[in-house]
Amino acid sequence: MGLMNRVLHNPGYQRDQHDHQDAVVTEPLEQAAPRQLDPVPSEPARRLEFALKSLEMIPGGIGFPGAVFDLLAHTLSISAGAFLARDIDDNRYKVWAHRGIDPTTRGRLILKRRTIDELVPERVAYIDETKRSLLGEHLSVRERSMQEPLLLCRFETKTRLCGLLVVFRSDELFADSENAELLLAALSEPVARVLHRYRESPLQGLLPPLVLELSDFRRSIQTTARRLLSSTHGIVLTRIRLRSIADSVLSVLPSADRYQVTQDIRRVAAALFAASGDVSIVEPDTLFAAVTMPAGEHGELLLHQLSSRFGSLFPELPGSFAVEALVRQWPVDSDDIAGILDTLLNHT
Questions:
Q1: Do 170 and 82 lie in a common domain?
Q2: Average pLDDT over every residue of 212-237
Q3: Cα–Cα distance, 239 to 233 (Å, whole number)
Q4: Any idea of the CA torsion for 222, 268, 310, 217, to the nearest 10 degrees?
Q5: pLDDT band at 320 (very low <50, low <70, confident <90, very high)
Q6: Could you report the per-residue pLDDT of 25-61, keeping only the tens digit for each?
C-alpha cells in the first residue's frame, strides 16, 4: 500500500473533500509541559524503588534518552551531566540530553565503543585525573581543568551497549557514592532494554533515505512531471520547517539536545517521503518533498501522515505535532511545474 493509500485508509482521519487550499498548512499542537516528577525518597532502598517505578511510567519513544536523563538527574541531584545515545549510522555515542555542561563539551563528547570499554570496564566507574586524560580531546578546556572525579554508567544488556551516563557534578553521587552506584547498576539493564526497543529498533527499521541535492531535486521533479503529462496522477510538493517539530519535542524534553533531536526528525521525515518520492534537505531545518499521487487526493494528507508518525515516535506529546508547511499540487494549482518549484524553493 502506497504512502497516500496508507493515509486514506487511516480511520482516524476524516476530511471534507471540498476543503482544499494550497497555502501554509499548520496542524495545531496541544501545548505540553515537561513531566513533573514526585519528590525523591531519602532512604536508598526506597530511592531505587522510586527510580524503577518512575522508569516504568516513561512512555517509550525515540526521545527516551531525554526522559531517562531527566529522571536520573532528579533522582541523583545531577547538576552537570550528559546522556550519550548510540548513533545508529556510525555506532558512536553522542550527547542526546544534557544539563550544566558548556557547548564545547556538548559538541566534543562523542565516544567510540572501545573508548567507553577502556574508561568503564564495569557498569559504573569513577574517572580520576589519571584516566581523565582519555577524555581530554572530548572536553572543553574548562571541563578538563576541573578537579572533581567524573562518574560514568553504562546502560547495556548482555549483547549491546545502548547508552552512557556521564556525571560531571552531583552532590548526591559524591556524598553517598556507594548507594548511588548500586542504584545506577540496578537501572543499567532496564534502561538499555527500553532504549533498544523504543529508540534503536524503530530508527534501524527506517531505510536510509536518498536525500538529493536541491539542483537534482528540481531536475527529478521536472522529469517526473513530463512522464505524468498523459496520466491521471499528479505531484504533491511540500516545504516543511522542521524547527517547529524540534521546538515541540524540546518543550516536553527540556534536557534534550536540539541538534540530535533535529537529526532524528530529519531521518524520520526523509525516510517517510523518500519511500514514495524525492526529498531534499537544506540546512539548517528545511525539508522539500515531492510525492506522486492520484489526481483528486489532497496534499495535506501528507502532513497528517507525518504528524501521526511523529506522534507515535514521541508519545510524550499530547495531540499532534505542529507541522508547518507550504503545500502545492501539480497540475491542480498550475500546469507550470517550474513555477511551482520556484514558489516552493524561494518561499520565505
A1: yes
A2: 92
A3: 20
A4: -10
A5: low
A6: 444 444 455 667 778 887 878 888 999 999 999 888 8
Neighbouring-strand partners of residue 161: 156
Where in the chain does DSSP place strands (E)? 24-26, 78-86, 93-99, 124-127, 150-156, 161-170, 211-212, 233-241, 277-282, 286-294, 324-330
What is the SS3 assignment for 282? strand
Taking only the tens place, the pLDDT of each residue in 64-115 is: 999 999 999 999 999 999 999 999 889 999 999 999 999 999 999 999 999 9
Give, in order, the Cα–Cα distances in Å from 39 to each of 35, 42, 47, 79, 254. Answer: 13, 9, 10, 16, 19
- Give residue 42's pLDDT: 79
Task: Give 121-133 pLDDT, tens digit per residue.
Answer: 999 998 887 777 7
- Based on the domain organization, do 247 and 329 belong to the same domain? yes
Question: Of 153, 176, 204, at which residue does a domain stop?
Answer: 204
Q: Is residue 340 within 8 Å of residue 328, measured between CB atoms?
A: yes
DSSP-based three-state secondary structure for 115 = helix
Domain identity same for 235 and 91: no
Q: Do residue 325 and residue 247 come from a single domain?
A: yes
Single-letter amino acid code for the residue at 96: W
Its domain, for residue 264, covers 3-30+206-346
Task: Identify the pLDDT of residue 321.
Answer: 57
Place of cell 576541573: 146
Among candidate residues 179, 204, 229, the one where a domain is terminated: 204
Question: Burial of 283 by CB count in 10 Å (0-12 exposed, 13-18 middle, 19+ buried)?
Answer: exposed
